[in-house]
């Protein structure tokens, strides 16, 4: 089980949202680079970064911050948010970013997804499936669809993704535990490397996800509020 700390970016600062609501923003660190270094010092090998401004407007906004995190740490960086054209993919990959996360564009422009996966290799990309009440949400969780979780995963598999991050928006930022029924359901549907996100707030949550067969867990607000200490869970095998 890989435990991956999360950094969400708005205006170049490290923040957390509650249930994806841009009106419920908590500021946790003015310096995301120092936050990433702190996570690395406490045992992290990976970091999950989302450009929330980028996700909202459809283009990179906090690229320089993300590049500085990659330059100044030894962390494996996966990042997403507003990555919707080939030039942006090239920009991130040329800057050493290890994994590019694609979300909304999977459903809005699958031809683009096919193109960049062929050009750069599908192993560089991670699909992101965000949902609420059983249906996929797009554009930084601002856009509701009628796409079911199952339909979304079939589309992701059809495009050839080998890695998937899923988030139940209802649990995200609530510190009340993960949607384990969704974890079981998605594990059955997707055979590749699967990362859970949303509401993970205790060591027991992580152990339970491991027992379901989840490969990695993204942890955000629980780390920032000290409800969970990274050094106590980073080495769960």
UniProtKB/TrEMBL annotation:
It is found in: Cytoplasm. Its EC number is 5.3.1.16. The keyword Amino-acid biosynthesis applies. Keywords: Amino-acid biosynthesis, Cytoplasm, Histidine biosynthesis, Isomerase. The active site is at 8 (proton acceptor), 130 (proton donor). It catalyses: 1-(5-phospho-beta-D-ribosyl)-5-[(5-phospho-beta-D-ribosylamino)methylideneamino]imidazole-4-carboxamide = 5-[(5-phospho-1-deoxy-D-ribulos-1-ylimino)methylamino]-1-(5-phospho-beta-D-ribosyl)imidazole-4-carboxamide. Its main location: cytoplasm. SUPFAM superfamilies: Ribulose-phoshate binding barrel. InterPro entries: Aldolase_TIM, His_biosynth, HisA/PriA, HisA_bact_arch, Isoase_HisA-like, RibuloseP-bd_barrel. The keyword Amino-acid biosynthesis applies. GO terms for molecular function: 1-(5-phosphoribosyl)-5-[(5-phosphoribosylamino)methylideneamino]imidazole-4-carboxamide isomerase activity. Belongs to the HisA/HisF family. This is 1-(5-phosphoribosyl)-5-[(5-phosphoribosylamino)methylideneamino] imidazole-4-carboxamide isomerase. It comes from Anaerocellum danielii.
């Amino acid at each position: 089980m890989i435990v991956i700390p999360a950094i969400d970016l708005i205006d170049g600062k490290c923040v957390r949202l509650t249930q994806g609501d841009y009106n419920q923003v908590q500021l946790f660190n003015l310096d995301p680079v120092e936050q990433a270094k702190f996570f690395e010092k406490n045992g992290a090998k990976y970091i999950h970064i989302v450009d929330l401004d980028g996700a909202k407007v459809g283009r990179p906004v906090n690229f320089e911050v993300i590049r500085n995190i990659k330059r100044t740490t030894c962390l494996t960086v996966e990042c997403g948010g507003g990555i919707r054209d080939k030039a942006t993919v090239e920009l991130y990959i040329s800057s050493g970013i290890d994994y590019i996360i694609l979300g909304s564009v999977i459903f809005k422009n699958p031809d683009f997804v096919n193109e960049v996966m062929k050009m750069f290799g599908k192993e560089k990309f991670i699909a992101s499936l965000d949902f609420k009440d059983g249906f996929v949400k797009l554009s930084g969780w601002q856009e509701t669809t009628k796409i079911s979780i199952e339909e979304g995963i079939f589309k992701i598999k059809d495009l050839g993704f080998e890695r998937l991050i899923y988030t139940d928006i209802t649990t995200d930022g609530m510190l009340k535990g993960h949607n384990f029924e969704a974890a079981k359901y998605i594990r059955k549907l997707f055979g590749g490397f699967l990362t859970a996100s949303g509401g993970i707030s205790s060591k027991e949550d992580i152990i339970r996800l491991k027992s379901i067969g989840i490969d990695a867990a993204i942890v955000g607000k629980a780390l920032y509020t000290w409800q969970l200490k990274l050094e106590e869970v980073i080495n769960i095998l």
